[in-house]
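Page header: ASSEMBLY MODEL / two components / 758 residues total.
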Amino acid sequence: MSTVQEVVTEAPAIEAVPKKAMTLGYGTSLAVLALLILVPLFVKNFIIFQLTMLLIYALAVMALNILTGGSGQFSLGQSAFYAVGAYTSAILMEHGNINYALTLPVSGIVCFGFGYLFGKPALRLSGVYLALATFALATAMPQLLKLGVFEPWTGGVQGLVVTKPDAPSFVSSIWSVFSGRAMSQDMWLYYFTLAVSIGIYVASVNLLRSRSGRAFMAIRDNEIAASAMGVDVALYKTLAFGVSAGITGVAGALGAIAVQFVAPDSYTITLAISLFLGMVVGGVGWLPGSIVGSAFIIFVPNIAEGISKGLSGAVFGILLFVVIFLVPHGARQVAVIAQQLIGKLRKS
Amino acid sequence: MLSRQKLRIAAFSTAVIAFAATSGGALAQKKYDTGATDTEIKLGNIMPYSGPASAYGVIGKIEDAYFKMINEQGGINGRKINFISYDDSYSPPKAVEQARKLVESDEVLLLFGPLGTPSNSAIQKYANSKKVPQLFVATGATKFGDYKDFPWTMGWQPPYQSEGRIYAKYLLKEKPDAKVAIMYQNDDFGKDLLKGLKDGLGDKAASMIVAEESYEVSEPTIDSHIVKLKSSGADVYFSMTTPKFSAQSIKKVAEIGWKPMYFQSNVGASVGSVLQPAGFENAQGILSAAYAKDGADSQWDNDEGMKKFYAFLAKYAPEANKADGSVVFGYGQAQTMVQVLKQAGDDLTRENVMKQAASLKDFTPDTLLPGVKINTSATDFYPVEQLQMMRFKDQKWELFGPVISGDVGG
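Prediction written out in full:
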């Protein structure tokens, strides 16, 4: 066996997860959902905006989680797919005057295609080599977006300003009957994002439970055994890339609408690393952890800045180190511990 | 909790009405918007304290120190400045988040001096739709003086187009039959500067400019472009570059024995980070333009303004490097902000602050060159628009000629 293949079997240092453990129980899911629906009713618009970003990054983290946790492939290039999604949506909205909601599926499809095509040559690479190839994609993307050839559409370094959508009039009128005031753009966008996120989350959970999902996990656990069992390794690996890129693209599109601005500097390698970080903190292979990971990459830098402005990077590093040291499997581990504790309490 | 904001507005308006009723004109009218009270004015700021542009973070620190000094001296009309500065890591989405935090959560009166073209582009629409002043943004992109479409946004430093126009004025006077070769950075900075130069040259631009080359920031070296420009037979060369490339350009031009009339953009004219690494012997006679005094230049030792500047540094920011252009920049910017708030008096509404910012008359911060004055009006949102030509001799820049104005507002 060549050294490269050696790496293949070693690299995914992920425990084999039973199917059920990849998701939450019904009770917990409903509680989280209720929380996500109710909280925005009581907070300021700024917090609603942050929560929207939380959902958007959670989607992007989850996409990476499907790729890494599901099929065992690494990617440091998610920012590139995120950027393509954001730009596709922004260009369609601003130059094509297409409704924002309709741009999301287009972004998803474009990114699926992009990811699938990128996954093809990347098939030859595994583990750290694949991570490097995707890293190259992430570093190249901001510069590609600045290219003069695309400038009429992308706006070059200046970026594109995106118009924030208002709530549709029927939603707005129902809302004003209940609350007595107009629905803010932020609140509408939050619920819109929430609906899209839930849809994608449910689809992803089902995907991983399906025949394809089992094929992903078989490849993750042992590629050779999987191919011996008749799994088309090449097809499923590229498919995992495509699905992951597609979801990231939708997240990018939502991000562009929420931030109202796209520019090459928004989608640097830092974003890709943040998403990777979010996945690790949330627990590799555990989809509900994505939202925890997303919260970590959004709020912890702010906390770190609050502690020390000059050393915010160092403080962030220490906090990250503490998390990895105490709970190496991220939020999933915390959830498991909590579950055990509750179990014990019930018995006693 | 739902109607907290409403309650607050209600309480506030009642208070205002009650106040207006009781004061009956006996007192001077005090008017406040969110972020200003009898004792405090809240200013919000966004800086890249971390990330690729973190070198500029020092601007925020100097501004913070400057406001501390003002507060110790009794504040502005009795009100202390509360300067809230957040990090955006030079990332536009983060800038939007921080701007919203400042406006909606910290409830600042205005956004002062956010840094960088991408970050400011990202928050411009938000600030204007919320009618929050986005004052004295720290970038020279010409688009931040568009008073018609963005009446709540104003720049501070000379827009890059002004700089280009000033070079054009000088060139037309000194060498009207020049053959010009131009090297520019392919982004908003390079293109703005180029546009300024072309506008300044007017009808003659087409006949004078014989060669143009652009480079990407990602290119490791620009040597080949320079060789190409030389072969065009030009006798005037413009280097519209940022520091790393400015140094490369100076070195390469000397190496291939090309001796054009050499113009270097102000951004890449730092003695410490450009001319020294490029070699002083290669940099003799290079032309550029400046609007602020060089903190490390001994000719300003007895200058009244700079004496104040040095005293400020000694007491409030002893660790700051006075040769760093950002230090001089932050001081001048903060001083302009204080002037605007002084002018606004007791009418601290966002509208009045914006009005005062647009009515600065011949204001001269301590750190600007003698003769460079800040003037704004309802139709001129570019505070600093004058520069003076300078020539590099021995180991420092020598200013010469009059202060030239390169108005782009109008």
